[in-house]
Write a structure and sequence with these properties.
Elements: E1 4-7, E2 17-23, H1 27-37, E3 43-49, E4 57-64, H2 69-106
Antiparallel strand pairs: 1-2, 2-4, 3-4
Helix pairs in contact: 1-2
């Protein structure tokens, strides 16, 4: 089953405007992507909706003033992955430091 599908934009905007439908996703991914993608200089609009709570679908709309919307989505997903990797690394470091301190306190 595809987890991502794409709705075409209008005739005037071509590939600069798209709505992407993420299956089995919700506000968590939508909010993260919007917060990252809206910071890009070439993005005119980025927003998401969850059309109905009973459906596990999230619609993400991207409109740009240059590059194709799919490129912006790919960039956003890559940047989100980097942020998640950094958070995981920071957590592991902090946990290791905490555990080391706890072991010192026990001695």
């Amino acid at each position: 089953m595809n987890t991502l599908s794409e709705l075409a934009g209008d005739q005037q905007s071509g590939d600069k405007s798209r709505t992407f439908i993420f299956n089995d996703e919700n506000h968590t991914l939508g909010n993260c992507l919007v917060s990252i993608i809206t910071q890009y200089e070439d993005v005119l609009f980025c927003g998401y909706t969850v059309p109905h709570p009973a459906e596990q679908k999230m619609h993400l709309r991207i409109q740009t003033n240059g590059p194709p919307a799919i490129q912006i989505l790919q960039r956003g997903l890559q940047d989100l992955e980097k942020k998640c990797d950094q958070v995981a690394a920071n957590f592991k470091t902090a946990r290791s430091e905490y555990m080391s301190k706890e072991m010192e306190d026990v001695d």
